[in-house]
Amino acid sequence: MQHRPRPRAGRLHAALRCPPFTRHGLPLHGRCGKLAAAFRPPGSCVRQALRLLPLPLCIACALAAHHPAAAADDDIEPDWSLCPIVESVPEFPDAHPATGSPADRASLPTDIAGDRLAGVDGESLEYSGNVTLRRGDQFLGADNLEYRSESSTYVASGRVRYQDSGMRLVAERLEGDQEADTHRVDNVTYQLTERRGNGGAERIEMKGAQGALYGSTYSTCPPDDRWWELRAERIDIDNDEGQGIARNATLRLGKVPVLYVPLFAFPTDNRRRTGLLYPSISYSSRNGFDWRQPIYLNLAPHYDMTLEPRLMTRRGLMLGTEFRYRTQGGSGVFDVELFPSDRLARDGRQDEIDQGILPENRRKDDRGMFRFSGQQAVNRHWQARTNLSWASDPRYLEDSSSNLQGRTDFSVRSDLGVYGRGRSWDAGIMADYWQLGDYTQPERVLPYHRLPRLYANWEDSFGRFLVAGASADLTRFQHADSRARPGGSRLDFKPWVSMPLEGAAWYITPTLAWRYTGYELEDDLARLVAQAQGIAPDASPSRSLPITTVDAGVYFDRTLLFRGEQHLQTLEPRLFYLNTPWRDQSALPLLDTQAMSYSWGQLFRDNRFTGADRQADANQLTLALTTRLVNAETGREKLAASLGQIHYFEDSRVGLGPGSPVIREGRSAWIADASYEINDRWSIGGTYHWNPASSQEDLASVRTRYLVGDDGVVNLSYRYRRNADTRADLLEQVDFSFLYPLDPSWSLVGRYYYSLLDNQLLEGIAGVQWDSCCVAARLVARRYVRNYLGEMNDAIQLEIEFKGLGSAGPKTTDRLRRAILGYHREDLYLVPPPEVRNDDGIPPPADVSP
After folding, report:
1. Fold designation for 18-273
2. Where is the LptD C-terminal domain positioned along the sequence (predicted)?
3. Does 14 have pLDDT greater than 60?
């Protein structure tokens, strides 16, 4: 390298060649100007300084974050709307927009600018006056920056400030030793930008990948309104291990310390760590005080475990275990609950005897449950999926549930299978098994096990006007109570061909199908069917018949002015003709077939039964009409109304058995459905089934919703349903729920879900919420039906949420979100993606191609 005379300090030379950074042996080139001297040095001083400063961000995130495996990610972000706009560290006016992402930092050069430069070759460089360093998304500014080559030390002082895509930081002084790789920052204040965290430290020291913070703080609250704050006397960081250790840490509410931890470890990156997770505390009249303390075990990079000891003062000690694993192309979760010596089983034994509960359905002394859910890709077309469940007794679901769903699941289903899908086909082989979950019923009410079931579906187009397809299903049926319900095998095969014709505003689709169903029954089942039908036993009955449908519709629209806005009104009449001849099906058993509930979708189906054991004979025509009112500018649907009815040209004689209701010649019940948005806040809707045969309604429901402010909602609905054949009332319910804000911080929540038919409360909720920028609290009281006998349970739950840190207490928001539609305003606008499902209700596997 060419040697030049050493300039004297304070003088500027237009052609000055700056001395090299000796650590890398790379020269620093540049031109020096009076107001802006710009350079591109690859020197270690600048790069090490920039590497140092993100350390507080790493530590702050670690203090604020949940453990990576603590819980499933919540899809609702904390509400920061009550926070002030001003941040603790405002944006720096001299920090220009980023020129790259964090991932590009290593490959980008560093630009230096300053008002003055002075130095002595091989000894030191001094930058002064608005010194700035930029690399990608990183910015470092200071009044002065000095680097001494002989000692490899540097000092930045005077308004030291740093900014990148994740944080902003100001400090009093920054200094370090490049050779020893030691660095120190004094009087640090930082503001996270991607999260609302902010805080500071008296000083930060770092040596290589090891670091330490002294007198550090963290909070998501504004600096002048500290509702909560984390403080630590010292925090040691090991970036190589991805772990930090905090000493003498306290959590303060205001100025009052509420939690002191002398020593605890936490992760500083996404690597999982063994440790305690946040506990959950609640109270109910059934369990007493309920404490859950999850313990996370990081066993290996591809599997882990969470133990959850649970203490219920009225029932005893329970242990829950979750084991998760991930493989190449697959994953799975094991859940085990062990509850030895449940006092509820011992204390309630006499009540079960008095209620006449069958001995096999009573609570066991030692109780528990097992679940496994997993999937594994076989290749790009095939995938194995498993969902296994087992409970020690039928009452376990009721006793372990805290919502209404626990009392409506009368069975526990397990299934496993291999499923495939291609461009024009899907197929699978699977098996399922049922366990009783309703202790008031015997095992014979359970569905048949399918051990196994093989199915295949195919559909393809042959030109523009021809579509053909076929479906096949072969199933072996067995039952848990084989004496009362013997089994057998069934083959169902249905090929079809369709000719779709369509224009710009019309379509007509005739379809011709042939359905064959054959059985191989156990002798006992054949005899039971024959006795019930009064016919001779047949162990190999079958049925075959054609099915003809014609689906046609037209589409009309016009523009009109409605309430001063342009709207598009549509008129969509639709006809659906179905013709299926009668076949005697009295020799066919009922293995998985039931009558469908009358609904809008049934107007356009080719069978009014589920399963393959019954194919209804039909000669009928559906007339339907739908109209919509759509805002021409926004595309938002203002009004939708539909009306439909089936006209039966002859009796439908196929039923589920002797004495079962059949369809008579005439007309079905009218189905009407409508929804209307009165304005941006009010909406109403309803469904009504009017039966002309009885001159009564079979179903009526009315619903209305009012949006209060930006977050509140009030829901009111009424539901009534009657059995169209027996004229017996099935349900009559009213449901009132609300989230009502009193002011920006306080709000009330509640639900009143009542059965008018039974004169009984199904669920009642009353609660109060308080919210601020960084803290939220919810106190909720619930009373709900917990079993089929109508017995009630009372519970009180308190949750305190430190936004950006975590929450203490049970997750009340999940419960309120299910009970109050619109509790999160985003839920009102969620539209589930369309999903094609197999006949058993299981979606086909996703394309797992690499």
Report:
1. lipopolysaccharide transport protein A fold (2.60.450)
2. 366-746
3. no
